[in-house]
Amino acid sequence: MVSPEQVGEHYLSVHQRMRRAVDEGMSGSGLSLARTKVLVQLRQRGPTRQSVLAVEFGCAPHSITDIVDALERAGLAVRRADPTDRRAKLVALTSAGEAALAVASATRERLLKQIFGALDAGERATMVRLLDALDGAAAALSSPLAAALDSEGI
Q1: What percent of the chain has pLDDT over 70?
Q2: d(Cα 125, Cα 35) in Å, to the nearest integer?
Q3: In this predicted structure, what is the pLDDT of residue 154?
Q4: Is 7 a residue whose pLDDT tops 80?
Q5: Whole-angstrom Cα distance, residue 92 to residue 122?
Q6: CA 27, CA 6: separation in Å to the nearest integer?
Q7: Paired residues of 90 in beta bridges
Q8: Among 5, 79, 96, 104, which residue carries the largest CB count within 10 Å?
Q9: Does residue 98 contact residue 43 with C-beta atoms inside 8 Å?
Q10: Which long-range contacts does 71-79 make (Cβ < 8 Å, 24+ apart)?
Q11: Residue 96 burial (C-beta neighbours within 10 Å; 0-12, 13-18, 19+)
């Protein structure tokens, strides 16, 4: 009999391998998974403060600063003054960022199709059902803020 701990360890190992494969594949298209997530958020929300991005992604402010610095160096995002607070800066998506995001999204979709295409339709439906059950169990262990962020797909 397989214990819950064995299943959990196996899941975490597979998740790490899949995430690494997707991140490496996306980096080949010019954007990492983390940078793509920030660009997606900027497209959905519009210009956003870095502090808001850090909270949304549940990471340290310096991590978001590093990502935004890289996006800005690549011309994919720009910092500009916040009209409501002259001390604050907003991060906005550029037209080059929009174009890069389209390429990264297509690459991500292709990679996920390759990985999850190994399952037939019934297996994918079962996996979604199982992941929903696991997500509910994990959410019960999370803080209220983490649960709220997770429910929004962040």
Answers
A1: 92
A2: 29
A3: 47
A4: yes
A5: 41
A6: 31
A7: 49, 80
A8: 104
A9: yes
A10: 71/35, 71/38, 71/39, 71/97, 74/30, 74/100, 76/31, 76/35, 76/39, 76/100, 76/101, 77/38, 77/39, 77/42
A11: middle
Instruction: Give, for 120, the enclosing helix (H) or strand (E).
Output: none
Look up residue 53 and give its amino acid.
L
pTM comes to 0.76
C-alpha distances in Å from residue 117, one per residue of 21, 55, 114, 123, 141: 15, 34, 5, 10, 31
Which residue reads 């403060």 in tokens?
49
Look-up of token digits 């998974």: 33
Which tens digits make up the pLDDT trace of 108-154?
999 999 999 999 999 999 999 999 999 999 888 876 555 455 554 44
Closest Cα to residue 73, out of 100, 49, 106? 100
Give the separation between CA 76 and CA 99, rounded to whole angstroms: 9
What pLDDT does 150 receive?
A: 54
CA 42, 138, 54 angle in degrees (round to 5)? Answer: 25
Q: If you average pLDDT over residues 11-24, what whole number do you get?
A: 94
Structure tokens at 96: 């080059």
Mean pLDDT for the stretch of residues 43-56: 94
CA distance 43 to 37: 10
